[in-house]
From TrEMBL, chain A:
SMART domains named among the record's database cross-references: TPR
Chain ranges of the Tetratricopeptide repeat protein 7 N-terminal domain: 2-398
Location of the region described as Disordered in the Swiss-Prot/TrEMBL record: 157-180
Protein name (record): Tetratricopeptide repeat domain 7B
Entry-linked Pfam families: TPR_2, TPR_8, TTC7_N
Chain positions of TPR repeats: 409-442, 724-757, 792-825
InterPro entries documented for this protein: Endocytosis_PI4K-reg_protein (IPR051722), TPR-like_helical_dom_sf (IPR011990), TPR_2 (IPR013105), TPR_rpt (IPR019734), TTC7_N (IPR045819)
Assigned keywords, A-Z: Repeat, TPR repeat
Organism annotation: Oryzias sinensis
From TrEMBL, chain B:
Entry GO CC: cytosol; plasma membrane
Keyword Protease: no
Bias (Polar residues) ranges: 483-492
Keywords for the protein's UniProt record, in alphabetical order: Cell membrane, Cytoplasm, Membrane
GO biological process: phosphatidylinositol phosphate biosynthetic process; protein localization to plasma membrane
Protein's recorded name: Hyccin PI4KA lipid kinase complex subunit 1
Region feature (Disordered): 479-500
Family: Belongs to the Hyccin family.
Parts forming coiled coils: none
Length: 837, 500
């Protein structure tokens, strides 16, 4: 403070140059200074010595990890200046201290460590004022602590040094620990003061820019820290980690990160934030974590137990510390993933800012550097968010990585996978296409794309294209080759289901069968290959062959739910209903909450044991449904919570279910209930909303009072006016009530929404038959048969219509077909079993 | 099993039973010193038919139920081994299922899914947001945060559930098996720092075996146990990977990397995006960090070096930040825009005239001079042109200025400017010749193109001729005479020629 008060303009200018590191201006200023007062000569010597030393260090920077190289010719001059300044003793105490510190630094550069320590012994560093000191002096003190630490590391413990006077005594372990403690304290103090210095320097600089003329100062360039400050900031935690003292290292990291950032510390912060995140993710767990504002645990599993002797206790406090982030409602992480995420998001924002965009060859290296530092951050983000199942957020983060991603396979692939995991299927497929372009030999990528295409997207043509890619790889695809055939088989199988023409249906079925056979022969130990082959055979009504393969699948994977289900359906197709029911019950013991199985069970029970038992199963289903949603609701708070996703996935699975046919006109109340239950299911399938429970109660009312079933359906119709299922239901209710005309109207509306809904077509055909509009009825039923050629009841109805028209020959043929199909017809269509990769 | 092991285990069984409640905590602390005990217990678990298995499982459960953290961790360290024992038995469809292991696993699960008051435990965490101040940052220093849908929806932190609530389970079945096991692994992972190396190795082994049994890779690994495939779920694999990651970074490099490879192999075959995602990230993040396999037990391979603090990216490279700074500059340049300034455009062009293009060229001038008022030619654009103009003049001014100018114009290179003009519509036929002849590359995105580009005068009054041009001068050194307009299909790049 004293200097500044008396300071003339010249002195202020000198101070500013020293703070901003403009050493080249000093000689000129010193000349002006000496011209004023002779007593300034000593100060001049000090300044000249300093600027020459700094200039030397700028030209010959000390590299991290290398030792100083001993005396140099150029430094002789520096020593002369400093000796002159010190020897005459005319300097003010502040300047005298500065001269000593510079001398010590010079000694270090010349590798005279003991001498340097001697100088530090004379100047008591701990007593130097931090409050009110000019900015450059903060830097000097920080450097001095760092240099002292460096010297202490070089001079073996126990040897005479002025700071540690136990001369002569042999180095005991006690003094080694003391020495280590002293070294770390030096570095930590140096780091703290360095942070303070950088904050102050930046403040001074921005104040300077505001005060000075509008022309921007020429020195706005980034300040560089230099060897000593860099060491001071980082050496302490390096030593902590080297000693296996993770707790202290993490503590030190946090101290540095909590200090308000400056331009100069940005890169350091980015590095440290990343390193701390790495430690949090790689070396810590929930139970060993402590939050940044808590004291570290006294005993931690993180610290190397074999090096217990190296316990370090922080026991200093500075008169002035760097400014920390402060304020109300500061977010402080409470968990290791939280802290890692926060740090990574901060690093990410910095890495993103440094993304090198220009693609000219000169900046190739820069681009690689920026890409590397960003990829590390994105990988760590993936690890942290993946652990917590936050794929939605992850996909957004990785989307930001795309500015680095040009021709970078890893980033593209990770984005694609995150989109896939987040359920953004359409976009995932687009990104996967780019991945295929970048890495055409990897069979996994097109297979992932097929998985999406035949699953949530139902893009069968695209799926076929991707699957062919895998097949075209031939032997190169190795274990994935069978998977490729399975994929294309599934595509064809689904296409067959979708096809409206019988000929193309049969063509696809044939292709699917061929592909599955190929897959099965390539991978005979894969239960899925055998299972899909069996399923395809079942769909083509080759029941005995299908049974053979499904048994094979079950031998490979005894508790596979789909294989068990298929086995039960196959048995039902052979009219072994009791055996089928036994299989279903066995499957249910392994999968008690599987709705598909329960649904099949209901149908089988109604067949074998009568409606009462089936009704009990229905009630059971409702209970499961209820508990399932009660369980899900409380966790609805967050987006993408894994449970919710699971619910959605389950719903998707249920979507494959078909509604019960309502063929008996003399249906009882139980049938109505079944119908309503199905309806309820279809409602919840389409949307799951709070309305479910309200609807449910109405279902029960509907059960006891059939009239109210209509009200319930009305409610549903209000909710989903465009659902063909709802319209179909309303038609059935109208039919039950005997309103043929009304039923016809509902069926027609249902067909206008979904023109290929076979069951509606069949009902409509029957009604038209009743209304004696035979040719129209025949037309509708023929269309229905085109859509689904295995619907035996449609064939039967068609036969009846033809008979009524007097076409006995054709009718007979239809009846025979119906009979034949009925003989191999399962209790529920085989396609109820989901087909997915 | 040796008699000695049996003796150790039996002693352990009886000692705990007679222990008074008050002595439990000292007992828990002393467990560490029983060196022979842990290996003996591993042997008991591995040998499925040992008579000791049932009492051991029972006591391990008692340990867990005690609630003393050390005792709970003692039990947890055997979790990987228990899981493998359970899975291999159930895969082999062995009728002699080790019911006591099942009971132990279910017991731990049922204890862990509820809190102290018996309520379902819901594990949640806060997703930090950069828009809220934290102990490590101030939102203002971060700069603009991308306004994605997600960012808007989560302005501020949000709490997210990552596990729970879970149902109590009485028995294992195919449906809940992996749900329970995944949750148990989650508990194990929460205590990873306390796990011994043996336990971590056992976890890696479990991961490898679960993933490769029944697959061709099993032969490669020469594992001869069960040979049927085990069904897995993606979530289960992700939890395994979390444990493997810890093992990898804490001394178990060899088994760890083998296990990671095996899990990735299986995730590929199963097409599990989640497991692939996390596994790939771990592989790639460890790629650079050379992991040291330390022979000393318990050494961690987390190492930190002093890194240079200065940016390793050269200053004149165009980065996201430099672009952002640039846009900012553009906004405050409002006071320019006189016709004088406009003339500079041609100066720029002259300055950057590629050498070697014929002398038959007259400098391109954008003849918009007398129509400044009708022109929305962005003031920003003009300013930019002016900057560029200065730089070309500065070339003669000395090397220092040239360097500065170079960096300025490098910054310019990415800046786009929009000029909306009702004039300067090129002749339709002139387009091709224009392409060949000019220097500054203008890419024009046509909002609406007049049919056939209409009358080719300087004064096309047509409303349709609104072009936005973006100046693409790629710094002085990088200007190519041939524009690569084929790459930017929606906009047409033309070179402006003198005949405008």
């Amino acid at each position: 403070m004293t200097t500044r008060k008396s300071g003339s303009r010249l002195e202020t200018e000198i101070e500013r140059c020293r703070s901003e590191g403009q050493w080249d201006k000093i000689p000129e200023l010193v000349r002006q200074l000496s011209a004023k007062l002779i007593s300034n000569d000593d100060l001049g010597e000090l300044l000249l010595g300093e600027c020459k030393l700094q200039a030397y260090l700028k030209e010959n920077p000390i590299k991290q990890g290398s030792s100083p190289r001993g005396p140099r010719l150029k430094l002789v001059e520096v020593r002369k200046h400093l000796t002159a300044a010190l020897d005459r003793g005319n300097l003010k105490p502040d300047y005298l201290q500065e001269a000593s510190l510079l001398m010590a630094k010079l000694c270090y550069v010349e590798a005279e460590f003991r001498e340097a320590l001697g100088h530090y012994g004379r100047v008591n560093l701990d007593e130097m004022q931090l409050a009110g000191a000019p900015v450059y002096r903060l830097s000097m003190i920080a450097e001095a602590y760092a240099t002292k630490g460096l010297c202490l590391e070089k001079v073996p413990a126990g040897s005479p040094s002025l700071s540690n006077k136990n001369s002569g005594s042999p180095s005991s372990s006690r003094s080694t620990t003391d020495r280590e403690q002293e070294i770390i304290t030096c570095y930590e103090k140096s780091g703290d003061i360095a942070l303070l210095y950088l904050q102050e320097a930046e403040k001074a600089l921005s104040a300077g820019i505001q005060n000075r003329s509008p022309k921007p100062g020429p020195t706005t360039q980034e300040q560089e820290l230099g060897y000593f400050l860099e060491t001071g900031l980082q050496r302490a935690h390096v030593i902590h980690f080297k000693n296996g003292n993770l707790t202290q290292g993490v503590g030190r990291f946090r101290e540095i990160l909590r200090a308000v950032e400056t331009r100069t510390t940005q890169n350091l912060r980015m590095t440290i934030a990343r390193q701390l995140a790495e430690i949090l993710l790689r070396g810590m767990c929930e139970q060993s974590y402590w939050s940044p504002l808590e004291d570290p645990p006294a005993v931690s599993p993180l610290d190397d137990p074999t090096r217990q002797g190296h316990i370090y206790i922080k026991n200093y406090s500075l008169s002035r510390s760097p400014r920390l982030y402060s304020g109300e409602n500061l977010f402080c992480p409470q968990e290791n993933t939280e802290e890692a995420l926060l740090l990574l998001l901060i690093s990410e924002s910095m890495a993103n800012r440094d993304a090198v965009l220009s693609r000219i060859p000169e900046h190739n290296n820069d681009r690689i550097i920026s890409l590397q530092s960003a990829s590390v951050v994105y990988d760590l983000l993936t690890i942290a968010l993946g652990r917590r199942g936050q794929y939605e957020m992850l996909s957004e983060c990785l989307e930001r990585a795309m500015k680095f991603a040009f021709e970078e396979f890893h980033l593209w692939y990770q984005l694609a996978l995150s989109l896939m995991a987040a359920g953004k299927s359409a976009r995932a497929v687009k990104v996967l296409k780019e991945c295929i372009r970048l890495k055409p030999d990897d069979p996994t990528i097109p297979l992932l794309a097929v998985k999406l295409c035949i699953g949530p997207l139902h893009w069968l043509d695209e799926g076929e294209m991707f699957a062919k890619m895998v097949i075209d790889m031939g032997e190169k695809a190795a274990e994935f080759r069978a998977k490729g055939y399975m994929a294309i088989g599934l595509v064809y199988s689904l296409k067959a289901t979708d096809a409206s023409l019988r000929s193309s249906q049969e063509e696809y079925q044939r292709k699917a069968l061929g592909a599955f056979q190929r897959a099965q022969s390539l991978s005979p130990t894969d239960h899925l290959a055998a299972f899909y082959l069996a399923l395809q055979l079942a769909v083509s009504r080759q029941i005995p062959e299908a049974l053979g393969y499904v048994r094979q699948a079950l031998q490979l994977q005894g508790d596979d739910v789909h294989s068990l289900h298929l086995l039960a359906l196959l048995l039902s197709a052979q009219k072994h209903y009791h055996d089928a029911l036994n299989i279903i019950e066995m499957a249910l013991s392994e999968y008690p909450e599987n709705f598909n199985l329960l649904y099949t069970k209901v149908k089988l029970e109604a067949m074998c044991r009568g409606p009462e038992e089936a009704l009990l199963t229905c009630k059971h289903m409702l209970q499961i449904w209820k508990s399932f949603y009660n369980l899900t609701n409380p966790s609805d708070s967050g987006r993408g919570s894994s449970l919710l996703d699971r619910a959605i996935a389950d719903r998707r699975q249920l979507n494959a279910m078909t509604l019960p046919d309502f063929s008996d006109p003399e249906t009882g109340r139980q049938q109505v209930f079944l119908l309503i239950w199905d309806f309820l299911l279809s409602v919840t399938l389409n949307f799951h909303s709070g309305k479910t429970d309200a609807l449910k109660s109405e279902v029960y009312i509907g059960m006891s009072k059939p009239a109210e079933a209509a009200a319930c359906t009305q409610e549903a119709a209000n909710l989903f006016p465009t659902s063909h299922n709802v319209l179909y239901m309303r038609g059935q209710i109208a039919e039950l009530k005997g309103n043929i005309e009304e039923a016809k109207r509902w069926y027609e509306e249902a067909l206008s929404i979904n023109p290929t809904h076979v069951k509606t077509m069949q009902r409509l055909g029957l009604i038209l038959h009743q209304l004696q509009r035979y040719s129209l009825s025949e037309k509708v039923l023929r269309d229905a048969v085109q859509v689904n050629s295995t619907a035996h009841d449609v064939w039967n109805s068609l036969g009846e219509v033809l008979q009524a028209q007097g076409n006995a020959a054709a009718a007979t043929e239809c009846f025979l077909t119906a009979l034949e199909l009925e003989a191999s017809s399962p209790i529920l269509p085989f396609t109820i079993i989901p087909r997915a990769l | 099993m040796l008699a000695m092991d049996q003796g150790v285990v039996e002693e352990w069984l009886s000692e705990f039973k007679t222990l008074p409640d008050s002595a439990i905590s000292t007992y828990a602390a002393s467990l560490k010193d029983k060196g022979a005990l842990v290996p003996s217990l591993y042997k008991v678990i591995r040998e499925n038919y040992s008579d000791l298995l049932e009492p051991v499982c029972h006591q391990l459960f008692e340990f867990y139920r005690s609630g003393v953290p050390q005792l709970q961790r003692f039990t947890l360290q055997f979790l990987p081994e228990l899981l493998w024992s359970f899975l291999s038995v159930s895969a082999a469809r062995d009728p002699h299922t080790s019911g006591c292991i099942e009971a132990l696993l279910l017991g731990i699960y049922n204890l862990e899914i509820v809190d102290k008051d018996g309520q379902s435990k819901i594990l949640s965490f806060t997703v930090p947001s950069l828009s809220k101040p934290s102990v490590y940052h101030e939102p203002s220093a971060i700069g603009s945060i991308a306004l994605t849908e997600g960012a808007l929806a989560n302005h501020g932190q949000s709490r997210v559930v990552y596990s729970g609530p879970h149902l109590q389970r009485e028995t294992f079945n195919a449906q809940n098996r992996f749900e329970v096991l995944t949750f148990l692994l989650l508990c194990y992972n929460a205590a990873l720092s306390y796990m011994t190396t043996t336990s971590l190795q056992s976890l890696c082994q479990l991961s490898s075996r679960v993933c490769i049994c029944g697959y061709p890779r099993q032969q490669m690994r020469r594992y001869k146990g069960i040979s049927s495939r085990l069904t897995v779920t993606s979530e289960f694999l992700v939890q395994l990977i979390t444990g493997i990651h810890y093992a990898l970074c804490n001394g178990e490099v060899e088994v760890g990397s083998k296990a990671l490879d095996d899990v990735l192999y299986r995730a590929q075959l199963e097409l599990f995006p989640e497991a692939l995602l996390v596994g790939n990230a771990i592989k790639s993040s460890l790629h650079g960090a050379a992991l040291k396999s330390n022979n000393k037990e318990g050494t961690r391979s987390i190492q930190v070096e002093i890194t240079p603090t200065s940016s390793r990216i050269s200053r004149n490279a165009v980065t996201s930040l430099s672009i952002r700074g640039h846009r900012w500059k553009r906004h405050d340049a409002v006071d320019l825009g006189s016709p004088d300034e406009l003339m500079d455009i041609s100066e720029v062009d002259e300055g950057d005239w590629p050498v070697g293009l014929g002398s038959d060229l007259t400098p391109p001038t954008i003849t918009i001079s007398n129509s400044v008022t009708t022109l929305n030619l962005g003031i920003k654009a003009i300013k930019k042109c002016r900057l560029g103009g200065r730089s070309s003049k500065d070339k003669e001014a000395g090397p220092l200025a040239a360097v500065r100018a170079a960096s300025e114009s490098a910054e310019l290179s990415v800046k786009r400017l929009t000029l909306t003009s009702s004039q300067s519509v090129p002749k339709a036929g002139a387009l091709t010749s224009l392409t060949r002849t000019a220097s500054a590359v203008f890419s024009r995105s046509f909002e609406q193109v007049n049919s056939g580009n209409g009358p080719a005068s300087n004064h096309v009054a047509s409303e349709a001729g609104r072009y936005s041009c973006s100046l693409q001068e790629d710094g002085m050194g990088y200007l190519s005479p041939m524009p690569n307009h084929t790459q930017r299909s929606p906009s047409i790049s033309i070179h402006l020629g003198s005949d405008l």
